[in-house]
Write a structure and sequence with these properties.
2 copies of one chain form a homodimer.
Chain A lengths: L5 H15 L7 H8 L3 H13 L3 E4 L5 E4 L8 H9 L21 H18 L3 H5 L2
Antiparallel strand pairs in A: 1-2
Chain A binds a DNA duplex through helix 3.
Chain lengths: ~130, ~130
DNA sequence: ACAAAATGATACTAATGTGGTATCATTTAA
DNA sequence: TTAAATGATACCACATTAGTATCATTTTGT
């Protein structure tokens, strides 16, 4: 059971590195060298971060990526959603049929509670807090 | 992100049904008819439940399954472990390398906390509590 | 003893998700 | 106008999950 997938993980590390170079435009090559992430995969990840407005990209010679201005408001869960889609702890438990012995399945409620807790926790971690010493 | 897989889900429903027929030996055919779970898959699931000592099986004509005597002590997490193995929310995040900007990665701690919470919650739900009206 | 009805064991197949690659198009600075 | 960067997109490989198929074993009734 994985809460965080590899692309999310890589994204986080890349962001940390970009944040370290405050203000500077950082290219794929630089990140690749530092973090040893396979280049094509890294490119894909950065492109997604750009689309999701977590990074800003600059094309052409001297191009690369910087943090978005609103970076301090972005949380771990935003990052996870970018790569892992909407986070439902369990999507379809008892969707088709209910346990015949219960009218309101108590397990569903429990799962919902757990889900909400997890989302709250993940949503409380800003990427900035991970970057700042 | 799935916390509970299909076999765990099916297992839970099957157990609910068996519990309803208190004491009676319930065959695969009966469960299949009631819950519309594909028979070979259901058989596999029930065999696992037997091996994990959550159900008792009886072979031969009139055979089938009943709940184990210690049923009241079995929790949702036991069921999940039977099908999904040991439950680690995240196994290897930052295993190979740490985010270069942090010495003790705060995210790792957060994940650990979430994991412990989830395990505690799931371990607090007895299957019996789901079955009992 | 034996046949039928049940589960046990095991190996295989199909579908999906994750991790990763390859290639061409587009933009931009020198 | 060319080289260096990212954008878009399609593809491939592997692992996990979901499900099937088949034969072996046990048990009960006749």
């Amino acid at each position: 059971m994985k809460l965080i997938t590899r692309d999310t993980d890589y994204a986080l590390r890349a962001i940390c590195f970009i944040a370290k170079n405050k203000g500077k435009i950082v290219s794929v090559s630089e990140i690749e060298q530092e973090l040893k992430i396979p280049r094509p995969f890294l490119r894909k990840i950065l492109q997604i971060l750009n689309k999701k407005k977590i990074l800003i990209s600059y094309k052409g010679i001297g191009g690369g990526f910087t943090l978005v201005d609103s970076f301090k408001g972005i949380t771990l869960i935003d990052l996870m959603r970018a790569f892992q889609g909407p986070l439902h702890i369990n999507e379809c438990l008892f969707k088709k049929a209910k346990c015949p012995n219960t009218k309101k399945c108590p397990i569903r409620k429990k799962i919902k509670n757990i889900e909400q807790y997890v989302l709250k926790e993940l949503g409380s971690v800003t990427l900035y807090s991970l970057v700042a010493k």
